[in-house]
């Protein structure tokens, strides 16, 4: 399959085309992020987010550009967004009194109300996950509740790692649709 053909088929929601594009460009996007982040797990997570976002928005891809360039741009923007979130999570206030520096760190420990809300959200999320097909439930459970790496999930399910990545992408997309509907 050629890249242009795969893109056209992916725009028609062809799963094999998505798999082909993921196989073709995974190493490029992952390598790009690994150089930037220098952490394998974080680079892998950003790469998965990149493909998820790209596949969700594939109908907006302009075929006069290179697909790899488009993916790298998406990946770079996702990484920049993550850096901004990290930077904003800690506030720092400097006081000029006697040249003393005062650091005010945002207390992110949950209040009792936050804990209750989180438990309610988790219960709803679990109900929504149960609406997925069993193989999607399993891959979500292994990745997000048991916190296994893609390699470990691949070994657990006895499936190629790219199948695990695609299955996880699809599971997250279907779960997002379920959550939006309810």
TrEMBL record:
Domain RNA polymerase sigma-70 region: 22-87
Gene3D superfamilies (alphabetical): 1.10.1740.10, Winged helix-like DNA-binding domain superfamily/Winged helix DNA-binding domain
UniProt key word Transcription: yes
Positions of the RNA polymerase sigma factor 70 region 4 type domain: 126-175
UniProt keyword list: Sigma factor, Transcription, Transcription regulation
Domain of life: Bacteria
Protein name (record): Sigma-70 family RNA polymerase sigma factor
Organism: Snuella sedimenti
């Amino acid at each position: 399959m050629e890249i242009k053909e795969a893109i056209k088929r992916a725009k028609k929601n062809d799963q094999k085309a998505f798999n082909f594009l993921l196989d073709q460009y995974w190493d490029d996007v992952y390598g790009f992020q690994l150089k930037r982040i220098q952490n394998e797990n974080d680079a892998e997570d950003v790469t998965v987010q990149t493909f998820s976002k790209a596949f969700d928005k594939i109908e907006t891809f302009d075929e006069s550009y290179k697909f790899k360039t488009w993916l790298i741009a998406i990946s770079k923007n996702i990484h920049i967004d993550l850096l901004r979130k990290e930077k904003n999570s800690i506030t720092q206030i400097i006081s000029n009194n006697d040249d003393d520096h005062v650091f005010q760190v945002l207390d992110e420990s949950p209040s009792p109300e936050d804990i209750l809300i989180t438990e309610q959200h988790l219960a709803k999320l679990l109900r929504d996950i149960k609406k997925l097909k069993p193989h999607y439930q399993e891959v979500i459970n292994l990745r997000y509740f048991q916190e296994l790496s893609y390699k470990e999930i691949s070994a657990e399910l006895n499936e190629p790692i790219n199948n695990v990545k695609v299955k996880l992408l699809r599971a997250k997309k279907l779960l997002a649709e379920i959550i939006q509907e309810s």
